[in-house]
Amino acid sequence: MKEVMSEPGFWQSRWGISLLASLGMGVVMLAVRIVAAAPLPPEMLFNFTARLLGVPWVFNLVHELPLGLDQYAKYALFILTFLAFLGSWVLLGWLLDPLLRRSNRLAATLLCIGVSVASVGLVFLPLQGLGAFGAAPANFFYPPLTTHLWAAAFGLVFAVIHILMNRRRQTDPLRREALGSLARLLGLVAASSILGRIVAGTYAAAQGLVGFFGKITGLSPEILSAGDHYVVSKNIFNPTVAEKGWQLRITGLVDNELTLTLDDLKALPAVERSSTLTCISNKVGGDLIGNSVWTGVHLSYLLEMAGVKDGASELILRAADNYSDSFPLMAGLRDATIVAYLQNGEPLTRDHGFPARVLVPGIYGMKNVKWVAEIELADSDYQGYWQVRGWSDSAIVRTMSRIDTARATRLEDGNVAIGGIAFAGLRGVQRVEVSVDGGESWREAELKPALNELSWNLWGFSWQAEPGTHDVLVRATDGSGEVQTKKRARPLPDGATGYHLLRVNVS
Ligand SMILES: Nc1nc2c(c(=O)[nH]1)N[C@H]1C(S)=C(S)[C@@H](COP(=O)(O)O)O[C@H]1N2
Ligand SMILES: [Mo]
């Protein structure tokens, strides 16, 4: 017998109901993520898709397309991933609709819960390498019980909305339509397992591209966001410099004094390159070191505009926070040295020196003056803010290396991998070695070529290790062939030395 029904609107249609249920589930997910830090299935999916951003050609595309995506790439990808996730639930809801409509409420609810738990346990967790239902020993992130309970809760939300919306509910027993729906579900499972294989294949290929370094969890990214880049200043409250009214003055032993606004500066030929900045007070193994992409004007260009007088030998930099420091004119004339106004393509943040700062790679951070207001050319040495407090005047960066991974990553071949960074200022890093026996013997680590001669190197090292803890040491050799000194020195006055020793966990 055919039922006679009023024409159902879109929201009562199979698509409409599934869309509503899916959106409702998405909203609940976001809410509990924020309120209760619940493990989020689309976030798990994102953990997987985000690997794409580490694939070199994707990375280059994102950073070279003039879309200004650099900073937001991960958010854009997260939104896309979330939408794809919700989309798959719309499709699921549509496919299951006849079955949901014909089974009783309890069965319908259990079906949705089952699908949700299964998708997390059999797809999203394995995709991240955490094993079926998160059983892998390396799963420190998604405690299985909580994760599955939340997955069940999300399935429940979907079911409740779906059932409430389904005005055309029928309670008569399963019939052909319902059986058809079951067949479609099985078809979907088969199709998605094929798709899964394709995705996994692509993933493996992408992993090959990302290579060894992409696999090492905990390894510092090659380029740090402004937020992740360390901040150091003498101030309790960093100065807020208004763009209006800010000027950079070039004074002292010059033919004509210069006064530049930010617009003037931006109108000059710009250079963009990554460079590593590190604080002289950084301890061995510390994180007062960072590498970002900086954009600005060659300082030599400004000095040429002003015309350097004979006898000038020193640059004195003064800043809006009543800070001053100096470095030799020779360092100021290097191509590496710029007055920067962008970090990773964005205006400097207040903490990193808005509107402009000096970057003089190879020399410790204290000479990289932020909120710079004046550059004076002088003919004698000058003692800056930290020099009068006993710190090095030349402040040439010392060779350092750091282990980033307190926990080793288990690789497919059974070995475990660790990694970190190494930096030797303008001398560059030639080699990184690792000792896993407390310094008795050293083996060469894999060195990722630096982005340029101003940037740090990532290194990685894999070895056969028993589960447990291992005392690992690292040392770098600079471009001149000099091995990092193992002599321990505190940061004051010339910068810390000694090898970073880290107790690494192997599970
Ligand atoms: N004007 C000004 N510039 C400054 C400082 C400061 O206190 N005032 N601190 C310096 C120090 S000690 C370091 S290590 C670097 C840190 O730069 P960052 O905060 O961008 O990493 O800025 C340098 N430039
Ligand atoms: Mo510093």
Written account of the structure:
By secondary structure, the chain is of the alpha+beta class. The chain is built from ten helices and 19 strands. The protein has helices at residues 14-36, 41-49, 56-64, 73-102, 105-127, 144-165, 176-215, 262-267, 299-306, 329-332; strands at residues 248-252, 258-260, 271-278, 289-298, 314-319, 324-328, 338-343, 346-347, 357-359, 372-378, 400-403, 409-410, 416-423, 429-435, 443-444, 446-447, 457-463, 468-478, 500-506. The radius of gyration is 29 Å and the shape is elongated. The termini are far apart. The model is unreliable at 1-5 (pLDDT under 50). Bound molecules: the ligand Nc1nc2c(c(=O)[nH]1)N[C@H]1C(S)=C(S)[C@@H](COP(=O)(O)O)O[C@H]1N2 and molybdenum atom (MO). Molybdenum atom (MO) binds next to loops. Residues 229-235, 277, 279, 319, 321, 323, 352, 365-366, 368-371 line the site of ligand MTE.
